[in-house]
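Technical annex, item 7. During the second reporting period the consortium partners agreed on a shared format for inverse folding records so that results from different sites could be compared directly. Each record opens with the tokenized structure and is followed by the designed sequence. A conforming record, contributed by the partner at site C, is shown below for reference.
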């Protein structure tokens, strides 16, 4: 009885939610908020002449980890090619931010790809929205299984693979696993520190 009344009192004692809690940290930069499912825009309070700086620093941050597939300064969008996630035997590479993901990438093929969008804020700053997508390779059978392949060969001697070259065809060899929010936060912290150093 006492426990339930305590929970009831604590639940009612909380105040209303703030509309836009963005307290400024050191050097006037808003702290990075935790990523959620809707998005993770990083607010950079720089003026309109600094759009080139924000775009260049975003491009440099992604270029350190990924190969860039598309970058357009005029629409504020950067897309990357997929990159195989590093496992336990590649500790110097960024990509998996916790040991569980490193073990998973060692046992199975995972890859990341990123999409970054820069949007102008009402007060002259910019919002940088970064989404890192994680995908798992989908194989019909384990790769590189050569045991008893010569003795029990069930495939025909001639195999013809017809690949359709079309940008609208979805790559069915990879299963989407959602977003990697830890990797997003790592790259956004790196971008925020490089953008504040350049001012």
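Designed sequence (site C submission):
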């Amino acid at each position: 009885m006492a426990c339930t009344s305590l929970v009831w009192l604590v639940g009612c004692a909380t105040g209303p939610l703030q509309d836009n809690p963005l307290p400024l940290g050191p050097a006037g930069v808003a702290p990075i908020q935790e990523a959620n499912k809707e998005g993770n825009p990083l607010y950079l309070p720089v003026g309109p002449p600094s759009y080139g700086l924000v775009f260049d620093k975003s491009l440099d941050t992604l270029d350190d980890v990924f190969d860039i597939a598309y970058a357009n300064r005029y629409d504020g969008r950067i897309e990357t090619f997929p990159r195989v996630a590093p496992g336990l035997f590649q500790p110097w590479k960024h990509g998996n931010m916790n040991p569980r993901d490193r073990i998973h990438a060692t046992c199975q093929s995972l890859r990341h790809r990123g999409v970054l969008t820069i949007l102008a804020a009402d007060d002259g700053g910019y919002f940088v929205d970064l989404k890192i997508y994680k995908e798992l390779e989908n194989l019909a059978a384990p790769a590189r299984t050569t045991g008893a392949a010569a003795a029990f060969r069930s495939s025909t001697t001639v195999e013809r693979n017809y690949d359709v070259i079309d940008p609208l065809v979805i790559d069915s060899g990879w299963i989407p696993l959602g977003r990697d929010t830890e990797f997003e936060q790592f790259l956004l912290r790196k971008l925020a520190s490089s953008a504040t150093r350049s001012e």
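Residues 150 and 170 are 34 Å apart (CA to CA). The longest helix spans residues 181-198. All partners now use this format for quarterly exchanges.
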